[in-house]
Design goal:
Length: 430
Amino acid sequence: MSVLNWIISNVLTQAGIVVALIAMLGLILQKKGVGGTIIGTFKTLLGFYVLSAGSAILVATLTYFGTMFQAAFNMTGIVPSIEAVNGYATNNLALGGQIAMTFLGIFIVNIILARFTPLKYIFLTGQALLWMSTMTVVFGYTAGLRGFWLVLAASIVGGLFAVGMPAAAQPIVRKITGNDAIALGHFCTIGYLVEAGVAWLVRKRGVDKQPSTEEIALPRAMEFLQDTYMSLAVVMIPLYLITAAFAGPAPVAETTGGMNYLMYAFLQAIQFVVGVYVLMAGVRLLLGEIVPAFRGISMKLVPDSKPALDCPVLFPYAPNAVIVGFITTTIGTVIAMFTLPLVGFAVIVPGMLTNFFAGGTAGIFGNAVGGRRGAIVGGVVHGLFITLLPALLVTTFLNLGFPNLSATDVDTIAAGLFFAYLVGPILKAV
């Protein structure tokens, strides 16, 4: 058992290692030889961690922006954090072992379902599986489940989400990428489908193709904005500078190192662009290796399976939509922050990390279904939606005796609420 716990804690929770091992398995099954297998495995690992490095840069600069944003507009309330929920479950409820076992159980259930059902998706976003295992275990525990039965129930529910969410998103992912080579493995998918539904409702009727965010006609003098990274800079630099001007120097005085706060904001905006550049490079490297390697798994172990990968893999397909989605989702979360308390919900402070990664992906979905109009209108509704579910979760947590906690990924929240409002009452009735 100690060996298994070590493997779960030190190997299976390292998403890059898991993805690389799966790529290696695929290359071995294709009989690529020792050299080809080593190169393919290493490039997969390298691509994943280049992507992670880009994400880390974005996390750092968006954390700074979130601090400035809250200070600029005097926002106070609950900042959703699945990490805090995980910490509470581990330290206060002693559920760390069950969460680790459920992490492995979800992956096993995922493989079984992909092998024997039409849902041929292998969920490869490790941190997302960890958050799903956290939420299913916590709410399974509050529903009255313990020990083996808790791990089993949480693994089954998590495994169903692990194949069900990529399957639900695949028709739109196929439209975005132009092929069926990859799927989306990110537990914010319900929110993406909400945006896609709104985009379908508001799309232009009677046209063969929706006006895309990627096809904006620009005057000759503004054609430089067709460069992805230049257009990012033109949007993010004013956004950071204006927010910093409203917030003043005090919120980040300890982190600027004596630099003028506006200059610091400018450099953070540049860091944002750098983070996107590095992330895109990682995506290209990862996809160049994992997709061919996955053919071996598809042919031998799980026929016709598709790798379900983290949301940044979609960013290169519609980079303008990513920014539109980020901005409109942020607008929606701010509106929700002020309106939901009027009907009795907790104040949920917008989280810029979620707004960028989930909002950006939702923007791609909205653009794919309803063009620019879909991305804009759908983004605002998406922001409202991803604030409503954490607000509902706070209420549920409080009713269960938990402190003021909430989470962000809407699919994990849905799984938790499933236990709270369906499984729990059934168990109590029995």
